[in-house]
């Protein structure tokens, strides 16, 4: 029998969760989706919770790699922030298991976005996003910005307003110039305006 890769099992779990959700997914379902014996899944992950922990860790690392790659070539802090937000937004909505849970099992997320686990969630998210800004800021400010970027992205994804599209690069740039960059950079020149990609705030708004 061919050896079953750990990622093959995790991919099977992704398929199941995207189809029926987290609560209804069993290790037996995962085995069928992964194309392996039930015993193989149980040897790889002794419980459903251990499997889910491994799945979350893998998907978070994949998201981080995608975001950091998008921000890697940004020549300015503003462009790095914009790339981070728009890339994360696209990746999150395209993630089918996550989309199913957000739509049909939102109670899964609630403990992590509120109450006692909120602080730990945003601290972890800040550390994951911080490397995108490390070229422009010291470590503490990079983490602080990472937290704000996480809050901004999730806020606009969870409760999108009519007047703002978190997937629109130009709209995100304008938001960054108005409300984010002033807290992390000095005004450019003596005209008390922040510049992004060599464009003044007035230029972006036109």
Give Rg in angstroms: 20 Å
- Helical fraction equals 55-70%
Number of helices: 11
Order of helices and strands: HHHHHHHHHHEEH
Strand percentage: under 5%
- Summed up, the domain count is 2
User: Judging from the principal axes of the Cα atoms, what is the shape?
Assistant: elongated
Q: How many strands in all?
A: 2
**Biggest pleated sheet:** 2 strands, antiparallel
How far apart are the termini?
A: 63 Å
Biggest β-sheet: strands ordered side by side in the sheet? 1-2
Chain-averaged pLDDT: 89
Helix-strand makeup class: mainly alpha
Low-confidence stretches: 188-206
Label this structure with key terms.
single chain, 206 residues, mainly alpha, Arc Repressor Mutant, subunit A, 2 domains, two-stranded antiparallel sheet, 2 strands, 65% helix
Q: Topology, pairings included?
A:
Elements: H1 6-20, H2 27-34, H3 38-44, H4 48-71, H5 77-94, H6 96-104, H7 110-113, H8 118-129, H9 139-158, H10 169-180, E1 195-196, E2 199-200, H11 201-205
Helix pairs in contact: 1-2, 1-6, 2-3, 4-5, 5-9, 5-10, 8-9
How does this structure look, described?
This protein is an all-alpha fold. It has 2 domains: 1-46, Arc Repressor Mutant, subunit A (Orthogonal Bundle), CATH 1.10.10; 57-205. Helix content is 65%, strand content 2%. The protein has 11 helices and 2 strands; from the N terminus they run H-H-H-H-H-H-H-H-H-H-E-E-H. The protein has helices spanning 6-20, 27-34, 38-44, 48-71, 77-94, 96-104, 110-113, 118-129, 139-158, 169-180, 201-205, and strands spanning 195-196, 199-200. Helix 1 runs parallel beside helix 6 (96-104) and helix 2 packs across helix 3. The protein is elongated. Residues 188-206 have low confidence and may be disordered.
């Amino acid at each position: 029998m061919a050896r079953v890769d750990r990622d093959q099992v995790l991919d099977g779990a992704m398929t199941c969760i995207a189809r029926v959700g987290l609560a209804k997914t069993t290790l037996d379902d995962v085995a069928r989706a992964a194309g392996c014996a039930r015993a193989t899944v149980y040897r790889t992950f002794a419980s459903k919770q251990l499997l889910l922990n491994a799945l979350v860790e893998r998907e978070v690392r994949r998201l981080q790699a995608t975001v950091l790659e998008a921000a890697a070539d940004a020549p300015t802090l503003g462009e790095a922030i914009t790339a981070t937000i728009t890339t994360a937004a696209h990746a999150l909505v395209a993630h089918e298991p996550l989309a199913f849970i957000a739509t049909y099992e939102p109670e899964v997320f609630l403990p992590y976005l509120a109450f006692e686990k909120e602080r730990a969630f945003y601290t972890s998210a800040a550390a994951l996003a911080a490397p995108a800004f490390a070229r422009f800021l010291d470590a503490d400010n990079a983490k602080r910005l990472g937290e704000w970027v996480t809050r901004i992205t999730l806020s606009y994804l969870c409760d999108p307003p009519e007047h703002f599209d978190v997937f629109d690069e130009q709209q995100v740039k304008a938001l960054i110039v108005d409300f984010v960059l002033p807290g992390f950079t000095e005004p450019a020149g003596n005209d008390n305006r922040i510049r992004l990609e060599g464009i003044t705030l007035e230029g972006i708004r036109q």
